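Handoff note, outgoing to incoming analyst
You'll be picking up this chain. Sequence as last confirmed:
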Amino acid sequence: MKSFKISLLLISLLLLISIHASTDDNNSEVIPSQVLFSRSIIKFSNLTGTIPFAFNISELASTAMEHSMDVKFSMISDQPINFTVQDFGETIIKRKTIERIDDVILKGPWLDFFASIIKTRHPEQNYDLTMVIMSDIEATGSMVFEIVEAFHTTKHDMGFDNTIVRWGESGSSENKELGIEGAITAALNSPYPKLHIVTDSPVPLELQFGKCGLIGLKINMEKEGTLVLDQQRLSSLHRFNHMVCKSNPDENLVDLSIASDHHPGAIVQFDLQRTSSINGQLLLTVTCAVLSLFIVAAFATWVARRKWLRYKLRKHYVKVVRRLPAPFDTSQELREYREVVDRNFEDNLQF
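Most recent structure output, in case you need it:
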C-alpha cells in the first residue's frame, strides 16, 4: 500500500512537470521574433592604391521605404582613405577630406534614387553601384549601408527664389550653407522655371556642393558667367539637401565651397527665373500669329462665299422675273413664285 502511494505521487509530479513545460513552450511561441534587416557591407583589408568594389543597395532602399525608415552610411578605417561612389562611371558621392567623417543619414530622395537604380542601370551591369576606395598606405576597414529608424531632423525654411552669396570680401567665408531647396524643387517639378547661377567674378570659380564631409556636385563657372542647372545637377542638389549628418541634423540645407586661383570680391547668385526662355516666347508668338491668320482667312472666305451666293441667286431671280409675261406682273402666281424663290434664297444661305 505504501509503495502504491509513492508510485501515485511520482506520477502526479511527472504530470505537473509536463504541464509546466508545455506552458513554457506555448508562451515562447507567442513572443514575436525581432525583425532583422539586411545590410550592405564593403570590407577591405591591407588596401593600397585604388580598388573598386561593386555593391547592391536598391533592395535595401526599397525595404527602408516600405517601413518608413532611413538608411545610415558609416565608415571605419584604421588609416586615412578617400573614396567615391559611382553609378556606371558617374560620381554621385565623393569624400572631401581624409579626416574622419560623421555617420550620414540618407533620407527620402536618396532612397528613391537608390531604389530606382535596378530599373535604370546599364544592361551589362549586374550590380547597382561601385565604391572606389583609395589609400596611399595599407588600410583595413569597412563601409556599411544599413536600415535605421527614421531620423529626426531640423527642417529649415525652403529658401527664396533669389539667393546671393558674397565671396572673397573681408569677413566672408569660403564655405556657406545654402537654403535653396524651394527653388531646386520648383525647377525640378516643371519645365519652367529655371534655376540660374550667376557670378560677377573677374576670374573663373569652382563651386563644390556637398554635406557631412562629402561632395555631390562640382561646377566650374566662367568669369562673369551664367549657368542654367539641368535636371541631373538639380537632382544631385536635391539629394544632398536631404542628407543629414548624425551630429548635425539639419535638413533642406547644402554646403557650398568656392575656390579660385585668386580671391577677388565677387558674388554668386542663385536666381529662379519663373518666365519662359526667349525661344519659348518666340514659339508662342509665332503660334498665336499663325492661328490668328487662319481665323481671319476662314472668316474672309466665309464672307466672300456668302456675297457670291447672294449675287448668283439675285441674278437668277431677276432673270426669271424679267422673262415672265406682262400679265404675270401683278398676278397671284407671281407673288407665289417670288415667295418660293425668296425662301430658296434664304435656305441656300444657311451653310
